């Protein structure tokens, strides 16, 4: 936004120039929902209730989804490829994830109920993996699983955006984001027990089949719990009518619109804006570049461990400390996001550096058992970049206004995520096993490029905020007036670019 818009800002300012801060028009024209209706004590009481119900459930659900998706990596340690006749790059294609326009669907249905139903069916698909016996069957099952699983992250972004303030998005999302590692510890111990039992009883059920039964059954049970507790304020039954109104009022200041109305209309202008917005493509490129190494390491990480000289069971156990380090890093970065304003992009930049160094060192260190523990330490360093995917996703609820635009940008972002994860597995060619040196170098290059994109993107967003601040200053608007007008525009379903009073969080 440039200073030429100062005249229009001045007109808005004139309409409220005779009002003090408590008399400024809020969003009373939108069913009288506004922030000043309730006390901080009432907001804090609801926030505590939200945290105790939503975050544990989202933590478990996200952890289960990650375990289901990456379980194939552990199963590969127990004759999974041999039993199913997989050769060459066939194993890689089993990690293909499908992105479906679920964001469009979620705009027209109940988010929580739809997600729980899809979760139930993907649990059945994971369970059925135990009955696969060839590549074709696995491809069908993994494609169905990807089709169903891809709904969870867009749904969680919608849920976070309708319950929490922008300043709370990163810290709350990081909590359920730790499930990748935290729930991974629990699952690793369970899979170790299954693998150990199968190793000691070779005539019994194959370990990889037992893992499928365990993961699928867990997902099905969780879907039943999610049906009753997961959803937006408008959908769930565990808040009263008054608490629902409090939930809407506390996030008016986000300026991206609340869940107060179910907006079913699909706005063509917002679709066009989503594709023309430079931030959409900064997001797309950053997500792809981050997902490429993530997809490869997630699928082949345990096989890289075995190249250090560890056995299959040792690989499972030695992966647990890495998960613990990941949890610590997530929580530390979440604390910094909460305490230091506009620190998200700096955190992403810092998190890339250790992972870049670790991957490059893994590729360049000599192939010798004497370097086993040094490589182990280098592999530890790669966990720091895991947080970037989550922080990039937070751009949608925090920085994208307009319900239709938010849905479109979400779809573009998760297409990028799925393309990156599917493509990353193709870095790891069968002929390069067991060290996969070209793949590790390619992953480090992707992280270096991601660093550049995020840095330039932050400069762009900072410029946008500076331009809007200068225009508001020229129009004589106070911070209080900007806050009120921005909230009003957000409730009118204006996008972040249409709303001159919106400020980006980076």
Automatic annotation (TrEMBL):
GO CC terms in record: membrane
Gene3D superfamilies: MFS general substrate transporter like domains (1.20.1250.20)
Keyword terms, alphabetized: Membrane, Transmembrane, Transmembrane helix, Transport
Region called Disordered, residue ranges: 1-21
Main localization, broad class: membrane
One Pfam family hit: MFS_1
Stated name of the protein: MFS general substrate transporter
Organism whose genome encodes this protein: Rhodocollybia butyracea
């Amino acid at each position: 936004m440039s200073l030429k818009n100062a005249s229009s800002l001045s007109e808005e300012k004139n309409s409220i120039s005779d009002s003090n801060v408590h008399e400024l028009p809020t969003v009373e024209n939108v069913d009288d929902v506004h922030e000043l209706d309730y006390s901080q004590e009432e907001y804090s009481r609801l926030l505590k209730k939200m945290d105790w119900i939503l975050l544990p459930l989202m933590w478990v659900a996200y952890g289960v989804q990650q375990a289901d998706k990456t379980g194939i990596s552990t199963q590969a340690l127990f004759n999974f490829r041999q039993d199913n006749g997989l050769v060459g790059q066939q194993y890689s294609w089993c990690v293909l994830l499908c992105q479906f326009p679920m964001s469009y669907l979620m705009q027209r249905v109940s988010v929580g109920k739809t997600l729980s139903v899809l979760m139930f069916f993907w649990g059945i698909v994971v369970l059925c993996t135990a009955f696969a016996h060839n590549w074709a069957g696995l491809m069908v099952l993994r494609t169905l699983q990807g089709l169903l699983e891809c709904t969870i992250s867009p749904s969680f972004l919608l849920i976070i955006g309708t319950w929490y303030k922008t300043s709370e998005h990163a810290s709350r999302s990081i909590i359920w984001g730790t499930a990748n590692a935290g729930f991974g510890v629990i699952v690793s111990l369970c899979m170790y027990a299954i693998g150990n039992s199968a190793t000691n009883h070779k005539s019994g059920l194959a370990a990889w089949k037992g893992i499928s039964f365990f993961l699928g059954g867990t997902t099905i049970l969780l879907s039943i719990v999610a049906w009753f507790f997961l959803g937006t304020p408008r959908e769930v039954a565990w808040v009263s009518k008054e608490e629902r109104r409090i939930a809407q009022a506390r996030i008016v200041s986000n300026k991206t619109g609340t869940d107060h109305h179910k907006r079913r209309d699909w706005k063509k202008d917002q679709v066009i804006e989503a594709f023309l917005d430079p931030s959409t493509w900064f997001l797309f490129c950053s997500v792809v570049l981050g997902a490429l190494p993530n997809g490869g390491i997630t699928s082949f990480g345990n096989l890289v461990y075995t190249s250090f000289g560890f056995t299959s069971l040792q690989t499972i156990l030695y992966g647990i400390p890495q998960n613990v380090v990941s949890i610590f890093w997530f929580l530390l970065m979440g604390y910094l996001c909460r305490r230091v304003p506009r620190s998200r992009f700096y955190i992403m930049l810092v998190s890339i550096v250790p992972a870049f160094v670790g991957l490059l060192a893994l590729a360049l260190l000599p192939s010798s058992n004497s370097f086993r523990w040094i490589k182990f330490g280098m592999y530890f360093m790669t966990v720091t970049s895991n947080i970037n995917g989550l922080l990039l996703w937070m751009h949608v609820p925090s920085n994208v206004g307009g319900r239709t635009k938010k849905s479109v940008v979400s779809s573009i972002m998760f297409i990028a995520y799925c393309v990156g994860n599917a493509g990353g597995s193709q870095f790891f060619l069968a002929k390069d096993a067991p060290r996969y040196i070209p793949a590790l170098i390619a992953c480090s290059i992707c992280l270096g490029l991601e660093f550049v994109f995020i840095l330039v993107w932050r400069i762009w967003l900072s410029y946008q905020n500076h331009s809007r601040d200068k225009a508001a200053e020229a129009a004589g608007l106070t911070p209080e007036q900007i806050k009120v007008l921005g909230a009003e525009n957000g409730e009118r379903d204006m996008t972040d670019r249409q709303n001159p009073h919106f400020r980006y969080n980076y």
